Amino acid sequence: MAKSVVLLVGTKKGLYTMRSGDRKKWTVGEPYGAPAPVHHAAFDPRDGSMYAAINSTWGGSRIEYSRDLGKTWTVSKNPAFPPGSDRTFYQTWHIEPGHAKTPNVVWAGVEPAALFKSEDRGETWSLNTALDGHPSRKQWVPGFGGMGLHSIAIDAADPSFMQVGISVGGVYTTRDGGASWERDNTRRGGAQDRPDVFSCIHKLLAHPVAPGVRFMRVHEEVYWRDPGETAWTFRTTGLPSNFGFAAAIHPRDPKTAWCIPLHGMKRTATDGIAVYKTTDRGASWTRNDAGLPKGAPLESLREGMHTDRFDDVGVYFGTANGDVYASLDEGKTWDRIAQYLPYVTSVHAATID
Fold first, then answer.
1. Closest CA relative to residue 76, chosen from 99, 110, 45, 46
2. What single-letter DSSP state applies at residue 83?
3. In this predicted model, what pLDDT tens digit does every residue of 121-142 receive, in sequence order?
4. Backbone torsions φ then ψ of 248, nearest 5 degrees
5. Nearest to 197 by CA among 215, 217, 220
6. Three-class DSSP category at 139
7. Measured between alpha carbons, how far is 45 from 34 in angstroms, rounded to an integer?
8. pLDDT at position 191 over 80
9. Which one-letter DSSP state was computed for residue 1?
10. Phi, psi (rounded to 5 degrees) for 197
11. Backbone torsions φ then ψ of 149, nearest 5 degrees
C-alpha cells in the first residue's frame, strides 16, 4: 500500500520537491539546480532513483540522478553525439525509466531530436543509431518549442515494443528494442490534409499495465490506440478546442485519461482552466473545473500532468503561473497545493511504498 507521494516539479528556475503522506498537507523543498530550467524529472519505481533534465544556458545542459529520493544528486556522463555527427547535444526533454524486465535501462529524449539509452541506471548514455539513421530524419523540422524527442512510450508487457514522439517528426515504433524503427503516423479520422500538424506530437503515453494501449496529443488533435491496432483513432470530439499539451492516463484503468485543452493561438485555457476526463477511450469527454479559478486563462505544458498510484488515484498538474493543483477524486474536484513557484514545466508523482 502506498505511503506517501513526492511530487517532482520542474520549473524554469530549478526542481522543486513537494512531499506529503496524506496528500492533503504538503511541504515544498528548496529548488535544486536553480536558476537552470528543468524540463522534466522522473521517478523510477524499480529502484527508487530520480532523474532530472537540467538544461542550463550557462555551463551546459546535463542529466543528474539521485539514489536517495532527492537528498543528493550526481551528474551523469552526458548524452553526446558521436564524433563527426552533424549535430550537438543541446538539451534533454524527457527521461523514461525502462521496463521492469530491463532493470538497469533508462531512456532519454533530447534536442536535437534523438533517443539515448543508458544500461547502467543513468550513469552513461549511448545514441540509438537506428533511429538517428532513419531515412526520414532529414524531414524533421523544429516546432515553436524546438526539434525535440519528448515522448517515450514503453509497452506494459514487452520492453522491445515502444514508441517515441518527435516535434516535428511524428511517431516512430520499434518492436525489437530499438534495432529498427518504422514511421507510425497512420490515422483514422482527423485532419488528413495536414500531415505536418499530425507529425507535431505534443504528448504520447503508453498505459503502464495494459499492453498495447496508447493515448496521444498532437498539435491540433487527440488520438487513442487499443491493443492490436496499427492506426491512431481520432478522439477530439467533445473537447472545446483541438489544441493542448498536458495529458495523463489512468495507472490501472485502460479506458480513462485526462487532458487540458488550450486555445490554439493564445496557448492558454479556453473558457478558463479545466481538466477534461474520458472514461471510454476518448469517445466522450467531461469538463471538470471545481476548485479551479473560474475563467483563468492558465497554461499547462506537455510534461505538466501526472498521476500517483494510490488505490484512490491522485491527479496533479502545474501551470505557467507557478501553481500546482491536485485532485483526490480522479479529476472531479481540485485543490491548489502550491503557488508562486516559477513557471512550471513538468510534474511527476513519485509514489513511495
1. 110
2. T
3. 999 999 999 999 999 999 998 8
4. -145, 155
5. 220
6. helix
7. 26
8. no
9. -
10. -70, -45
11. -95, 110
Rg (CA), the chain: 19
Residue 185 cell numbers, joined: 503516423
Instruction: State the DSSP string of 222-237.
Output: EEEE-TT--SEEE--T
Q: What is the pTM of this model?
A: 0.96
Cross-strand partners of 196: none
Q: What's the CA gap between 77 and 285, in Å, rounded?
A: 44
Residue 230 CB burial class (10 angstroms; 0-12, 13-18, ≥19): exposed
The answer, yes or no, to whether residue 270 has pLDDT greater than 90, is: no
In the Cβ-directed half-sphere of 329, how many Cα atoms lie within 13 Å?
8
| Contact call for residues 210 and 254 (beta carbons, < 8 A) | yes
Q: What angle do CA 299, 216, 63 make, to 5 degrees?
A: 70
Q: How many Å separate Cα 118 from the centre of its chain?
A: 19
Within 155-221, residue ranges assigned H as helices are 195-198
Fill in the amino acid letter for 193: D
**Cα separation, 137 vs 141, whole angstroms:** 9
Give the CA distances from residue 286 to residues 280, 282, 283, in Å, rounded to whole numbers and listed in that order. 11, 10, 11
* Cα–Cα distance for residue pair 128/217, rounded to 1 Å: 24
pLDDT tens column, 65-100:
999 999 999 999 999 999 999 999 999 999 999 999
CB 36 within 8 A of CB 56: yes
State which amino acid sits at residue 298. Answer: L
Query: What number of other Cβ atoms are within 10 A of residue 265's Cβ?
Result: 7
pLDDT of 26 higher than 80? yes
- Mean pLDDT over 1-29 rounds to 95
- Consecutive H or E run containing 130: helix 129-132
**1 pLDDT more than 70:** no
Q: Which residue has the cell 515504433?
A: 173
Is 90 exceeded by the pLDDT of residue 144? no
Give the cell for residue 149: 524527442
Contact 231, 198 (CB under 8 A): no
